[in-house]
Each structure stands twice: as C-alpha cells, then as structure tokens.
Amino acid sequence: METGIRLEDYEFELPAERIARHPTERRDGSRLLELERATGRIAHGQFREIGAHLRPGDLLVLNDSRVIPARLFAQRYPGGGRIEIFLVQEVEPRVWKALVRPGKKVQRGERLVVAPGEFEARVIDYAGRGERVMRFETGGRPWDEMLRRYGHTPLPPYILKARKLAHEAAEDTEEDRERYQTVYACAPGSVAAPTAGLHFTKELMADLADRGVQFAWVTLHVGPGTFQPLLEEHLRAGKLHEELYEVLPAEAEKVNAARREGRRVIPVGTTSVRVLESACDAEGRLRAGAGATELLIAPGFRFRLADALVTNFHLPHSSLLMLASAFGGRELVLRAYREAIEEGYRFYSYGDAMLIL
Predict the structure, then answer these.
(1) To the nearest whole number, what is the mean pLDDT of the chain?
(2) Domain 7-67+174-356 belongs to what architecture?
(3) Mind spelling out the 3-state secondary structure of the chain?
(4) I need a labelling partner for 243 at 20 to 30 A (CA). Which of 98, 102, 194, 289 fits?
(5) Where are the domains of the chain?
(6) Class of CATH domain 71-150
C-alpha cells in the first residue's frame, strides 16, 4: 500500500439531485458505466446489458448476506426521551453491540423500551465511540419475529437526509424492505446492503447463466462503518472496522478452479472483494472458513483474486471509493465519476453501477 495517502485526494463535488433517494422501477433498469482500465475508455449502457461485457466461464462472486431491520426506536425508562438503537454486531444470542443516539445520555444499567412488556433492552456495557452492549428481552417470543415487527430498514443516513430535503417521509417504507436487499440474500447479519448486487434480478441471473457465466457465493456481514467517511486514524492504522465473513468449501473451489483454468473472477461489490482478498493465501488460493476482516484496500494494493469489478458510485472520502480507485486507478475512476455526474447518473446505494474491466 502506498504511503502518504490523503483524504482530500478522494473528494468530488456531487449535486444533491444526483443522490438516489429511491431505487429504479426495475432493479436491472439502472444505468451501467463501463470503464476500461487499459485504454481509459468509458461507455454508457443499462445494467440489464451487462452480459454483453462478460464471457462464457466468467465467475461472478456475490455476497449473499441479508440485511436485517437493524434500526430500533425506544424510550428511556422511566420517563425518558426517545433513543435510536442501531444494531451493529451480535455478540451472543440477544446480546448486541449497538450505536445509540443520542449516545451520551445512555448509561450502563439503563433500560430502553421498544415495546412495553414485549421488546426491551438493558445496557450492560460501553463499547467504544457511541456504542453500547445491550441485552434484549423479547417476552419469550422469537428474536427474528420481534425484529421484523419493530425493526426498520437501516437505510444510509444520506438517503434519509435527501428524502427529508425533498419533503418526503424520512423513514423507511415497504418498498425499502424489499429493494434494500439483493434477490439472492439468504444469510441474515448485515446492517447495510451490499449495494452492487441490488441491480441483479433472478431473470438477469438466469440469462447470464444461459450465456455460460458462473456464480460463486461468499458471505460478509456489512457493518455501518462501510458507508462512513474514512478517518485519519484508519489511514494511520491501515485498517477498517471489523466485519465477519465466511467462505464455504464448494464456493472456494469455484474461485480456485477459475484461477487454475484462466477464467476471470469478477467480484460484485467491494464487500466481495474484501472477502476474496482477506481469505486468500500467499499462493493466491481462496481458503474456505469463517473469519473477520479489517482490511483497508487503497492504491498500491496488489489484487490477487479480482480481474474485473462490479461496483456502485460511492461517497467521497470513503473506503469504498478508495478500493475502487485502487482497482481502477484513482485519476481514471474520478474522471469516470465526473462524467457520470455530467451524464445524470444516480449515486450511492440506490444509484447506478459501474463495471471496471
């Protein structure tokens, strides 16, 4: 990794109207910007046409983590104000690390009531900046049932802010419950969506399979830090927030077989990249197993298991933009961003996509 990385090198101006407040009518109706690293060529199309850029034998690697309704609203007991609880990571059954807002007021031992007599939490410890460890009580009811009933879709703050500025309802909707989720999500645990996968439909995936494109699945449970701006402390430490991942043996073999046979491995999204590069051994083989990654990927990083990349358009100063810049080249990626803005592309989680070849 290069030294002397500056956050200001990952800055760009984005008009507010370019932030996608809602998904497109159809998932694969989003736009697709194709960026060719070798030539610098930029082309524009629709995501449903991505198969035209893929070859028989290409292996798409997708993150199958499922977003949980991680935002809860509670009252301090007795007689306190409203508290937002944002689940971050499960420590053990019904015990979670969570961000709380306003955080300074919430003390160890405090009782937070989501639904009286049904769904409550007790703060049992502090866990860093704005975080608490809390134990939930569900009145004997299943945890998943209570979370579905009272939890909200954890939309990124910039979507909620953009909706508020547009005088729209600032909370999640039924549409969000479906669309802030990939069609192949099956492993609950993420509190933010692996957004590059949001563009795929089952029909598109079937069409790609008919063309000879193959699929492999990994799991990385996305944390809320993924979409937050980088801090100088991340750069000094050379690592990010911790996220949990798993690679099953059959899926690792798909990736390793593609490498042996000279076929392209194409991760869908930065989360899939982080799994591949975190679980890769010194010989460039993907290892099966579960683990945790704090990997920060920046320009100068040597990619071992990515030949192309499907990704969205990311926040300034974010680790996601830095990863895309590491893969495509910072100047080239930022030039593509400028052209995307001029061409009216939609940005961020519900926005359009980019294919870096």
Answers:
(1) 93
(2) 3-Layer(aba) Sandwich (3.40)
(3) CCCCCCHHHHCCCCCHHHECCCCCCCHHHCEEEEECCCCCCEEEEEHHHHHHHCCCCCEEEEECEEECCCEEEEEEECCCCEEEEEEEEEEECCEEEEEEECCCCCCCCCEEEEECCCEEEEEEEECCCCEEEEEEECCCCCHHHHHHHHCECCCCHHHHHHHHHCCCCCCCCHHHHHHCCCCCCCEEEECCCCHHHHHCCHHHHHHHHHCCCEEEEEEECCCHHHHCECCHHHHHHCEEEEEEEEECHHHHHHHHHHHHCCCCEEEECHHHHHHHHHCECCCCCECCEEEEEEECCCCCCCCCCCCCEEEECCCCCEHHHHHHHHHHCHHHHHHHHHHHHHCCCCECCCCCEEEEC
(4) 102
(5) 7-67+174-356, 71-150
(6) mainly beta
pLDDT tens column, 227-282: 666 777 777 777 888 899 999 999 999 999 999 999 999 999 999 999 999 999 99
Judge if 7-67+174-356 and 71-150 fold alike in CATH terms: no
pLDDT by residue (tens digit) across 127-143? 877 789 999 999 999 99
